[in-house]
Amino acid sequence: MKNIYSILIICSYLYGWGNTGHRVIGRVAEDRLSNKAKREIKRIMGHHDLAYLSFWGDEIRSDPNWRHASTWHYATIPDGENYVKGKHRGDIIEKIKEFSEIANSSKAEVQERKEALKWLVHLVGDLHQPLHVGNGKDRGANSVKIKWFNKPMNLHKVWDEKLLDYQKLSYTEYANFLKLKFDENTCRKWLIGDLISFAHESREYRKVCYDFEGDNLDYKYTFKTRPILDMRLMQAGIRLADLLNKIFI
Q: How far is the C-alpha of 27 from the C-alpha of 178, rounded, in Å?
């Protein structure tokens, strides 16, 4: 029974942004790929539609052959701490580094490079979901029980899915909206940093996730959190494109 409970705790982190959020990130990144990156990704994958690749990492969550990947989707950085490799549960930072090397390796098998690319598109997105950098206390807010417009829910699911669904936009509409919202100078500034600093950003922004009174989240919460939601989606997209452009330089 203990082993089953442990698996459930780990698997609760698997969901990041939901399909819509990952597709938004993929679409933003797609529009910023270099011609060289597009050619190389197409050569490996047969296409370079990053939105299509983006949610594969969640699709395989029920495949027992991928159960070992459950800790790849998140990091744990408690409040007041910085990331230290291996100190807490969660391997997302190290896996992004590993898959970047595999995707760029001429010695790797084609299937390995395909999987590495799919994981990269997914995990860079997960890293920017604030609750995928957990505080180590509540399973990435899966244990935080609230109501979403009076419907029982947990806080993690609100950030994975409900905030995005509330906008009533397709992933292409959302991506286009973000491209209009954020100017190029701002986007270029967001490219400064590395995976650890991006994780530290999520650690700080997750404070906004917990900033509410009572247990019923509604339009007031969406209004408060929308700036962070939009920013993290856009940051994930432009940083994903930058990573792939550097891999396939």
A: 11
pLDDT in tens, 157-195: 999 999 999 999 999 999 999 999 999 999 999 999 999
> pTM value?
0.93
Spacing of C-alpha 190 from chain mean position: 16
Number of domains composing the chain? 1
Per-residue 3-state assignment (H helix, E strand, C coil) for 25-92: HHHHHHCCCCHHHHHHHHHHHCCCCHHHHCCHHHHHHHCHHHHHHHHHHCEECCCCCCCCCCCCCCCH
* 29 in Cβ contact with 240 (< 8 Å): yes
Rounded alpha-carbon distances, angstroms, from residue 58 to 39, 134, 204, 241: 26, 18, 25, 20
Domain CATH for 23: 1.10.575.10
Task: Show Cβ contacts of residue 143 under 8 Å, excluding neighbours closer than 6 positions.
Answer: 154
